[in-house]
Amino acid sequence: MDNRQTKTDVILIGAGIMSATLGSLLKQLVPEWDITVFERRSAAGEESSNEWNNAGTGHSSLCELNYTVEQPDGSINISKAIQVNEEFQFSKQFWAYLVNSGVISNPKDFIMPVPHMSFVQGESNVAFLKKRFEALSVNPLFEGMEYSDNPDLLKQWVPLMMKDRIVDQPIAATRIESGTDVNFGALTRLLFDHLQKNNVGMHFNHQVDDIKRNSEGLWELKVRDLASGAVRRHAAKFVFIGGGGGSLHLLQKSGIPEGKGIGGFPVSGLFMVCHNPEVVAQHHAKVYGKAAVGAPPMSVPHLDTRVINNKESLFFGPFAGFSPKFLKYGSIFDLITSVKPHNLVTMLAAGAKNFQLTKYLIGQLMLSKEQRLEALREFVPNAKGEDWELVVAGQRVQIIKDTASGRGTLQFGTEVISAADGSIAALLGASPGASTAVSVMLEVISKCFPQHIKAWEPKLREMIPAYGTSLLQEPALLREIQAETSRTLGLTNGNGASGHGDKTSALA
Ligand SMILES: Cc1cc2nc3c(=O)[nH]c(=O)nc-3n(C[C@H](O)[C@H](O)[C@H](O)COP(=O)(O)OP(=O)(O)OC[C@H]3O[C@@H](n4cnc5c(N)ncnc54)[C@H](O)[C@@H]3O)c2cc1C
């Protein structure tokens, strides 16, 4: 090992959307800080953030049914939907700022307007969707949402899904034009390109093998150059572990007490992808259905229009599966080496409690091509096998920890774990994911740099106009900001700008 050591203000581990976002925020807030990035792959955005490894949905709860839960009294709880929507507003505002300030020259390189829809069949599902629509559409964050249980209108909204469909049970959908398709891979690369031009040291093919506190109180990383095999030490005052699925191992290596007792469970994803232009042209929406029994919330099936490299394609899935790897390009020993004395009981408890999930994942893993096509035909009744190919997507490592609801609870959200002194933070979990990168990285900033927040507030408000306010409490401000953000990003404004008939007629 080379005993020379470099020192810097900030080290970002991993070149995914999270590190890209944190680096971009910090560069705007304190341009004079030295930032260094280490990434084990040969380019940025190669793991979960890559456009082929995720579904590219700008999650705002416009279509994802799992964010609205029916209560025992029959009412719909929309609090999670509001939270997810507000978080995505933050992302859009920051991206609009980056466009206005010239960091990103063309928003079309990473974001496109694509209507978001929910689609259900069967009496109880239709009743749920209607109640969900009634609860959401009166809320300013969801303005412009339409509902229909009229098959003729659905044929206009989703011709591919209605063609050759036998409608022998109630059927309904909601639609909102302000949905988005986001190319998180392209966005990650755009952000890192800009950072690199602004003196951020980017080190690809460099893997962080270890993290320890040194005698000066700095975090010292052992970094391996995967091309030459050389190992060097790099020290920093602040470290962000943005390793995606690789974060848990690195957090454990740091030894901070906040990282103890936490385990991870990997769920892999597969999409069926269609490039046939004739089929692709018949569908223009992201359409989310209902999850199967036992399915984890992020495995809700959906049929999505995607825009990648200016070319439209359709994605269907994700089909879940099990692989012991924590990263798509990880090791088969990832799961086993993440089990430590401090999380063993938690992991065993999770194994015993999640029988339904295990059963579901094994079932998904065993699916044949014909069975996957059958699932697709629930959405596209006349889907032909030759039009659809299977693509392996990213890995999502779900957090396992002891919570108030018991030992070994599987969590489906994301969580920022940081040291008490704010000198190191890691992001674990993967849902709602990349869409919430800005609000999650603002959480990292507020947890790790509380002493600077007051001074940074004016700049934070300039970058994210709704920072520190609840948009829901200020509908006029929400409309104003949304209109401005949509204009800058080339999106469809949510405030009743829909061109597909009015709500009341659609309801009839
Ligand atoms: C199937 C699927 C569908 C999804 N759909 C959506 C969606 O529709 N919308 C949405 O918002 N989100 C979605 N997500 C989630 C989203 O992709 C992730 O939340 C997001 O990309 C995570 O970004 P990240 O930067 O944390 O991790 P990543 O993009 O995985 O980046 C982590 C990086 O760290 C590197 N790394 C790891 N360990 C080390 C190490 N030791 N040394 C150096 N480098 C290291 C990796 O190589 C990688 O490049 C989906 C995810 C999956 C898997």
> Strand order across the biggest sheet?
7-8-6-15-16-17-14-18-19
Distance between the termini: 73 Å
Characterize the largest beta sheet: strand count, sense, and whether it forms a barrel.
Answer: 9 strands, mixed
**CATH fold naming:** FAD/NAD(P)-binding domain
Approximate strand percentage: 25-35%
The set of bound ligands, ions and cofactors reads: flavin-adenine dinucleotide
**What is the rounded Rg?**
23 Å
CATH superfamily: FAD/NAD(P)-binding domain
Count of domain modules:
1
Q: What gross morphology would you assign?
A: globular
Q: What is the number of helical segments per DSSP (H or I, 4+ residues)?
A: 16
Percent helix, as a range, is 25-40%
Going by CATH, the architecture would be: 3-Layer(bba) Sandwich
- Give the C-level CATH assignment: Alpha Beta
Count of strand segments? 21
Backbone structural class: alpha+beta
**Unreliable runs, pLDDT <50, ≥5 residues?**
495-508
Determine the mean pLDDT: 91
What does this protein structure show overall?
Its cofactor is FAD. The chain has 508 residues and is α+β, with helices and mostly antiparallel strands. The chain has one domain: FAD/NAD(P)-binding domain. Helices cover 33% and strands 26% of the residues. The protein is built from 16 helices and 21 strands. Strands 7-8-6-15-16-17-14-18-19 form a nine-stranded mixed beta sheet, sandwiched between helices. Strands 1, 2, 10, 11, 12, 13, 20 and 21 form an eight-stranded mixed beta sheet that branches. The protein has a two-stranded antiparallel ribbon with strand order 3-4. The longest helix is centred in the first third of the chain and has 22 residues. The site of flavin-adenine dinucleotide has 41 residues, from helix 1, strand 11 and strand 18.
